Amino acid sequence: MPDPVPDVEHEEILRYEEILRICEAAVRLGIRKFKITGGEPLVRKGCVDFMRCLKETDGVETVTLTTNGMFVKEHIDEFKHMGLDGINISLDTLDRKQFHRLTGTDGVDAVVDAVAACVSAGLKTKINSVLLSETKSQILRLAHLAQEMPVDVRFIEVMPIGFGRFEKGPTEDAVLQILQAEYLDLAYRRDVRGNGPAVYYGSSLLQGYIGFIAANTHRFCDECNRMRLTSTGFLKPCLCYDSGIDLKAVLRGGSGDSLTAALTRAVKSKPQGHCFSHIGEITENKTMNRIGG
């Protein structure tokens, strides 16, 4: 991260064996699709081996990765051989100065190269771009990546969590106006491109698709199928609230619950919807990189 983040003691972080036990219990309850996120997952030693083990676990249907792209190229062959089902690469701008200001690195070329390498390896590739006020000028440049390569470029409305509480980025509708002026036949597609909640638009000029995740202006809470497990073992039914289940306590014998019972309780506690339009009611104060955003 460009700014310091709080340190977490090593013993507070779930071991890979513990994460696998949680995933195995989730599979028994019908949760069969898993996404590895962060922070940046590839900075953790052994992450790729863990992904391979998860991919080989009975009942697991898909394993995908969300990454900043900085360490992707060195693992491309491993991703291909394990049968990774998809990779989402975060890229908010193609402007070098903006990229450095947002990420603290000069790695924009490395990230774009990583996208191209994933495409060449035959990996299903998506680009995730959070819509920020300062990067509005980058919308068309980013969309052009879906013209140059068979990748989906997804624009994500910034959520009012952490830094997002102080940022009012462009909306899906505003971005659509910009894109439809460039791609005159850009239109909504019903194609299934993933596991939700993104919606997609296609054009005859694009090799890939343009997607939107607009949790603020086009809320999709009634269709949300996500649960997030933090590195410290806290299972969150919704990003908006700090409530959830401490699975680490279950795993290490501190709660008396079984994993199956705890997971069931977490699913049943999933709220009907978030309260992003009422910021004062949001109870989650941690930044997105600490909760698997």
Protein architecture, described:
- The chain has helices spanning 16-28, 47-55, 76-82, 96-103, 108-120, 139-143, 145-148, 172-182, 247-251, 259-268, and strands spanning 33-36, 62-67, 86-90, 125-131, 152-157, 187-189, 199-202, 210-213, 228-229, 234-236, 245-246.
- The strands form two sheets. It has an eight-stranded mixed sheet with strand order 1-2-3-4-5-8-7-6.
- The chain is α/β, with parallel strands linked by helices.
- It has ten helices and eleven strands.
- The protein is globular, with a radius of gyration of 19 Å.
- It is 29% helix and 16% strand.
Shape category: globular
- Show unreliable segments: none
Main beta sheet: 8 strands, mixed
Strand coverage percent = 15-25%
Helix residue percentage: 25-40%
Radius of gyration: 19 Å
Please trace the helix and strand order, writing H or E for each element: HEHEHEHHEHHEHEEEEEEHH
Structural class of the secondary elements? alpha/beta
Strand order of the largest sheet: 1-2-3-4-5-8-7-6
> Helix count?
10
The number of E-state strands comes to: 11
Let me know the average pLDDT: 87
Distance separating the two termini: 14 Å
Task: Give structural attributes.
single chain, 293 residues, alpha/beta, eight-stranded mixed beta sheet, three-stranded antiparallel beta sheet, 10 helices, 16% strand, metal ion binding, GTP binding, GTP-binding
